[in-house]
């Protein structure tokens, strides 16, 4: 089945000017779409960056012409109020001339604790994110002023004065049945990180049949496989902790401690490392088989994007098209 190839602007591993330059390169190479992380902190100190995603996306929208843009993902319940997220998304859709998708999720303590509002338990976060989704959808409707006294959020005479001609599609990140059901009922796109067929089925059963399903997969491309494995371990050893853990840890030092027993061989067994394009295609096929229509790759290492882009042009993209179609 056809599956589109995506590029990840990972804000935790490069500065804003570099991120935009890399995305321009990704568009030139021929990536089908792009996603952008929205963080206040990097996962680990070694990653070294975390510029504002929305400012970076505004610059990227002006610097590119074709490639679709997407937040992957924005949490609209603590650090941002959903009314502000709606305004940012509508404006970015206008600036990008209809290329933006608003990817939303229930967030991580890592990024949301900074405003001092505490970190609610998972069931409360899902209540909050449902209310936030409803607010954002209502503001996108553009039907006059909106007032709301919700359980978690209030709106006082809110209205988006600049709405795009093309309504902003909304994606929602799901790691389990409850979130996949929310995505199917209230969103236009499923977002996930694992190749789980059950999530796709739950999303489709809840109203998501025929809608895009987007996932993400890290790789560590490099002609020196040992160096690629070491880099993946240094920067991405947190990845295998699972989202139930990742959502709760408060900062990079906590992720460092939680991943201290992860070995290089553990990373190598779970992330394609080196320059074997067949290994990347084989790992990607798990997502296609699970029913995902889009897969964004993360090239690990902010200083490794240029060789990765050239390898994608010469090797990965032809193999991808052969395996998954245009």
Describe the structure.
This protein is of the alpha/beta class and 326 residues long. The protein contains 13 helices and 11 strands. It has helices at residues 16-29, 53-63, 82-95, 109-112, 122-141, 177-186, 197-208, 225-236, 243-246, 252-258, 264-270, 277-290, 305-324, and strands at 4-9, 33-36, 69-70, 100-104, 146-149, 154-158, 170-173, 189-192, 213-221, 273-274, 294-299. Strands 1, 2, 3, 4, 7, 8, 9, 10 and 11 form a 9-stranded parallel β-sheet that branches. Strands 5-6 form a two-stranded antiparallel ribbon. α3 crosses α5. The longest helix is centred in the middle third of the chain and has 20 residues, at 122-141.
Evaluate the radius of gyration: 19 Å
* Average predicted local confidence, pLDDT: 97
Number of helices: 13
Portion in strands: 15-25%
Q: Characterize the biggest β-sheet.
A: 9 strands, parallel
Structural class: alpha/beta
Number of E strands: 11
Helix content: 40-55%
First and last CA, distance: 10 Å
What global shape is seen?
A: globular
Output the helix-strand order. EHEHEHEHHEEEHEHEHHHHEHEH
Low-confidence stretches: none
Compact overview of the structure:
The protein has 326 residues and is α/β, with parallel strands linked by helices.
């Amino acid at each position: 089945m056809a599956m589109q190839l995506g590029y990840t602007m990972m804000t935790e591993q490069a500065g804003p000017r570099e991120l935009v330059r890399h995305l321009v390169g990704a568009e030139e190479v021929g990536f089908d779409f792009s996603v952008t992380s929205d963080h206040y902190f990097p996962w680990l100190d070694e990653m070294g960056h975390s510029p504002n995603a929305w400012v970076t996306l505004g610059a990227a929208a002006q610097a590119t012409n074709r490639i679709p843009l997407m937040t992957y993902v924005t949490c609209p319940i603590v650090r941002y109020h959903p009314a502000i997220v709606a305004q940012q998304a509508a404006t970015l859709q206008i600036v990008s001339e209809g290329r933006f998708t608003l990817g939303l999720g229930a967030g991580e303590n890592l990024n949301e604790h900074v405003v001092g509002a505490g970190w609610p338990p998972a069931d409360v976060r899902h209540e909050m994110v449902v209310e936030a989704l409803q607010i954002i959808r209502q503001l996108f409707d553009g039907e006059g002023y909106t007032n709301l006294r919700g359980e978690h959020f209030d709106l006082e005479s809110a209205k988006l004065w600049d709405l795009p001609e093309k309504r902003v599609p909304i994606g929602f990140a799901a790691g389990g049945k409850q979130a996949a059901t929310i995505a199917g009922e209230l969103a236009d796109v499923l977002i996930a990180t694992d190749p789980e067929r059950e999530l796709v089925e739950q999303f489709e059963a809840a109203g998501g049949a025929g809608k895009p399903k987007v996932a993400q997969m890290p790789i560590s491309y490099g002609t020196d496989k040992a160096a690629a494995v070491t880099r993946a371990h240094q920067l991405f050893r947190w990845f295998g902790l699972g989202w139930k853990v990742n959502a709760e840890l408060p900062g990079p030092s906590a992720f460092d401690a939680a991943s201290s027993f992860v070995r290089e061989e553990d990373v190598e067994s779970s992330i394609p490392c080196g320059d074997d394009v067949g290994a990347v295609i084989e790992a990607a096929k798990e997502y296609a088989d699970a029913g995902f229509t889009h897969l964004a790759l993360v090239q690990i290492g902010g200083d490794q994007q240029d060789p990765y882009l050239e390898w994608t042009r010469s090797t990965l993209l032809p193999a991808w098209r052969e395996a998954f179609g245009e």
